């Protein structure tokens, strides 16, 4: 199976139906460390309708540094299932959905792609939206774009941060708030310069034009 069959595309849109997901891990090495919690919330018409939440036994000691961040201990995962038991249910939960998450392109998805690449018949072709990229585009005034920074900007609660399910719920609220910055319709990002594409009325009908015009002249049909 090729890499393109295993992975989806990164989208730059504000949409109404999606799944926010988050992982907690034993460390930051996407090729060596292990997943110890998977959580996700399913969103329909901008409202959370279902959730997935599961601790995972990594089969190894959880380092103290990881526990300090996410609060997950060896004792908490002692009776938890292993990743191979959990993965089918998680893949079923996200099947056919666009995934949303914070820094997932460089972190969470790499853990899942590694597992998918090691197991026959497993793939993760879902397209995804990384809210880190969205925040850098729509909240340039922030000095940092961590999920907690974005939540604080919108006066959202950060209680429970760094546990996967709480992070999913916080991420969902941040995504919805960032989407509203450019209206309630779907928003597109210019693939050439990264600026926003705004709907305009032209001589030949509706189209989307880059807000960085005239420096960038990219357009797409409405």
UniProtKB/TrEMBL annotation:
Keyword match Nuclease: yes
Domain Exonuclease: 17-184
GO cellular component: chromosome; cytosol
CDD domains: DEDDh (cd06127)
Alphabetical GO biological process terms: DNA replication proofreading; DNA topological change
Key words of the record: Exonuclease, Hydrolase, Nuclease
GO molecular function: 3'-5' exonuclease activity; DNA binding; DNA topoisomerase activity; DNA-directed DNA polymerase activity
Presence of keyword Hydrolase: yes
Pfam families with a match to the protein in the record: RNase_T, Zn_ribbon_Top1
Protein name listed in UniProt: DNA polymerase III subunit epsilon
Organism from which the protein derives: Lacrimispora amygdalina
Taxonomic lineage from the root: Bacteria, Bacillati, Bacillota, Clostridia, Lachnospirales
């Amino acid at each position: 199976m090729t890499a393109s069959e295993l992975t989806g595309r990164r989208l730059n849109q504000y949409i109404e139906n999606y799944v926010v997901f988050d992982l907690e891990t034993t460390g930051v090495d996407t090729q060596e460390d292990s997943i110890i919690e998977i959580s996700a919330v399913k969103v329909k018409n901008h409202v959370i309708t279902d959730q997935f939440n599961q601790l995972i036994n990594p089969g190894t000691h959880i380092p103290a540094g990881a526990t300090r961040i996410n609060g997950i201990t060896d004792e908490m995962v002692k009776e938890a299932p292993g990743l191979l038991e959990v993965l089918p249910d998680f893949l079923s939960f996200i099947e056919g959905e666009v995934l949303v998450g914070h820094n997932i392109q460089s972190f969470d998805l790499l853990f899942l792609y590694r597992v998918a690449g090691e197991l026959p018949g497993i793939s993760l072709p879902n397209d995804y939206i990384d809210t880190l990229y969205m925040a850098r585009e729509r909240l340039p005034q922030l000095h940092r774009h961590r999920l907690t920074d974005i939540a604080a900007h919108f006066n959202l609660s950060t209680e429970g941060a760094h546990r996967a399910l709480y992070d999913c719920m916080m991420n969902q609220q941040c995504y919805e708030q960032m989407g509203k910055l450019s209206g309630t319709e779907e928003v597109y990002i210019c693939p050439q310069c990264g600026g926003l594409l705004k709907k305009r009325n032209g001589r030949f009908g509706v189209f989307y034009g880059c807000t960085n015009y005239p420096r960038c002249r990219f357009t797409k049909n409405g």
